[in-house]
Amino acid sequence: MEAVVDQLEQRLLASLESEAFRPLGLATGRTMEPLYAALVSRLRDWPTDRLQLLRQHWRSFNLDEYVGLAAEHPSSFSAFMGHHLVGPLGLDPAQVSLPDGATADPEAAADRYAAAIRSAGGMGLQLLGLGSNGHVGFNEPPCGPEVRCRVVRLSSSTRSQNACAFQGRPGLVPEQAITLGLQEILAADELHLIVTGASKAGILRKALDRDGDPEVPASWLRRHPRLWLWVDDAAWGEEGP
Ligand code: GLP
After folding, report:
1. Does pTM top 0.85 for this prediction?
2. CB 124 within 8 A of CB 151
3. Which domain holds residue 201?
């Protein structure tokens, strides 16, 4: 994770020095936990005035949120961000945006979220994890590169994958989510896909072997001119993808 954090730190420093802070695209999930821990530890070593400047300029948009969970719900992605980044870094929650999962009108919330990202100028650096069925954000297969921010129905495999945050019970995982589409994700200046653990080796191999396969949404990422891939030995697999 230190190598990814090096890159993130450099980007954050450069954007502060050039006074051109572009919104960050942030992800949740177990993959991101050690990354945020390492990033927090690195940024806390910054001189106080520089860290304060970062807090002032911080602007980020998360990829997704469950429909039906209030931000305060312990299993919401909003709570995840509060626990892993906002609290430890002392960020203003108003500068860390996620889709509004608790609204009575999720479609309208998705439209509002997309509009907020557009008016912020789109994402600079976008962090991404990889779902075990090849999803990015919550863009479940099948999906093409043109899909936009919207409400999606989660597959049973994704609800099982994420059950660990819901007492291990897939039935407690919400059935729907609001997610950025591949269209908004591919519009970021640079993408950083982080894949760890042997359980992701197979789907990573598919994502790299296929060039734009609707059944493996992550395969569309290959079309981005600045895609960084950060993979640990276990996810790379013994023979490599
Ligand atoms: C989740 C999220 C994705 C995340 C992925 C991997 O469902 N919607 O944004 O990157 O699945 O999760 P994990 O890191 O826990 O394997």
Report:
1. yes
2. no
3. 23-134+143-233
